[in-house]
Specification:
The structure is a single chain. The protein is of the alpha+beta class and 429 residues long. Helices cover 46% and strands 19% of the residues. It has 21 helices and 12 strands.
């Protein structure tokens, strides 16, 4: 019986083994991009080809150009490269020259596998990655095309704030080509969509011919949907968007009375794509005692909280959310203290780290807070912080005097029963 059972199982085992082998062989088969990279690596890494490749790839990947990349059209272009300039006006003249003069380029582009790859934008991206082509393609293109416009003083003055707004997640959702076209036709629409945009920028969109050309450029439409490309354009223009600000709020407050509790918040502003924070808050342990903290409303959704670290005069917090916050400002956390001595002290931030949604460190600046002593009440005549018999004695000793004196509690330039009454009312405070 055992022999028969084994005999029946053997064919199944063979079939299973064949399937495993076939699956492994299939898994190990290189992708189309990898095949082309292996075959034409030396050609594609030539310096003259590398110089034109980024701009060429972005043109070939555009949705409006993808339908043109059929084998028949590619072969026609190779027969007469000037046709390509007619089909894709923005293609570089250097690439046209290569098509005319370089037989190796012509041979590669006649390869059916290469022609198939050019019709697949994801395969084009994979090939670009294998070749380590500069990831920022549109930013240099837009920079070169509008360099003179970007150097204008009025444009440079507006750019930092405009860029930070355009990069904000809530704005990114709006930056579709169709929406940008509508804004180009009616700039007031932008103010409705993005209220914080400056009126001066709206006026430029309405009245400046050069700005109108820029805002109608399809390449700019594509760039504006990629925060990394916006950052690269800012770098090329030597424009630094405003730093993210993390601050103690309020910046200054009077100390409550001894034994009382109070809360401050740590707020964030100019934020963009923030998914997590880590920070330490230093305080004067002779003046304050740390009590507790609560998560603010800036981060939302599923939040992971790192255990709080408490030292004598420092407390450290860290939290991260599964998704980056949409808001550009809000409260990271609320912290509660108890007053152990009424005195001036500082609340200072340190080791502040903000993480983007992909785990990169964001640039940040901080603003500290302070606790100030409340003004001494006039009925504390001897300024020792306690209203008692000593204050009553001082008023009584100066009874009847006129002019400026600490015993003139109500400030009417005469020490009389009114001053004694005020001290008596606050006796024991």
């Amino acid at each position: 019986m055992s022999h028969i059972f084994t005999k029946r199982l053997f064919p199944l085992f063979v079939i299973g083994a064949c399937l495993v082998c076939a699956t492994q062989a299939f898994a190990q088969e290189p992708s189309l991009a990898e095949q082309i990279f292996q075959e034409y690596q030396e050609l594609l890494q030539r310096e003259d080809v590398q110089e034109v490749l980024p701009a060429v790839l972005i043109e070939l990947k555009k949705p409006k150009n993808q339908p043109l990349l059929t084998p028949a059209t590619i072969d026609a272009v190779l027969d007469d490269p000037e046709i390509l300039k007619t089909l894709i006006p923005d293609i570089s003249d250097e690439f046209i020259t290569l098509l005319k003069e370089d037989t190796d380029i012509q041979m590669m582009l006649r390869d059916p596998n290469v022609q198939t790859l050019l019709q697949d934008s994801e395969a084009v991206d994979e090939l670009a990655s294998l070749l380590e082509v500069e990831p920022f393609i549109l930013a240099p293109l837009i920079f070169d095309r509008y360099q003179m416009l970007f150097q204008r003083e009025d444009i440079r003055e507006l750019l930092p704030d405009v860029l930070i707004i355009l990069k904000a997640p809530e704005t990114q959702k709006l930056l579709q080509p169709a929406t940008i076209k509508l804004v180009a036709e009616d700039p007031d629409l932008l103010k409705t969509l993005v209220p914080e945009i400056e009126d001066r920028f709206i006026i430029l969109l309405k009245e400046d011919a050069a700005v109108k050309v820029l805002i109608n450029d399809p390449d700019l439409h594509t760039l504006l949907q990629n925060p990394a490309e916006i950052d690269e354009l800012a770098r090329l223009l030597s424009v630094e968007p405003p730093l993210i600000v993390v601050s103690v709020v309020p910046a200054s407050m009077e100390s409550p009375g001894m034994g009382e509790q109070f809360s401050i918040t740590v707020d964030i502003a100019n934020a963009q794509n923030v998914a997590g924070y880590e920070l330490s808050l230093h305080f004067d342990s002779e003046a304050l005692q740390y009590i507790s903290w609560e998560q603010g409303t800036y981060l939302s959704g599923e939040i992971f909280v790192i255990p709080t670290t408490i030292k004598e005069n420092q407390v450290t917090f860290a939290s991260t959310a599964r998704t980056a916050a949409d808001a550009t400002q809000g409260t990271l956390l609320t912290i509660t203290f108890k007053v152990v001595a009424v005195k001036a002290s500082t609340l200072s931030l340190s080791n502040v780290i903000l993480s983007s949604g992909i785990g990169t460190k964001l640039l940040v600046t901080t603003e500290d807070g302070e606790i100030v002593e409340p003004p001494t009440p006039p009925w504390d005549v001897n300024k020792d912080g306690v209203i008692n018999i000593l204050d009553l004695t001082l008023v009584a000793a100066n009874f009847g005097e006129t002019g400026p004196t600490p015993a003139d509690v109500n400030g009417d330039n005469i020490v009389n029963i009114l001053d004694l009454t005020l001290v008596a009312i606050h006796f024991g405070e």
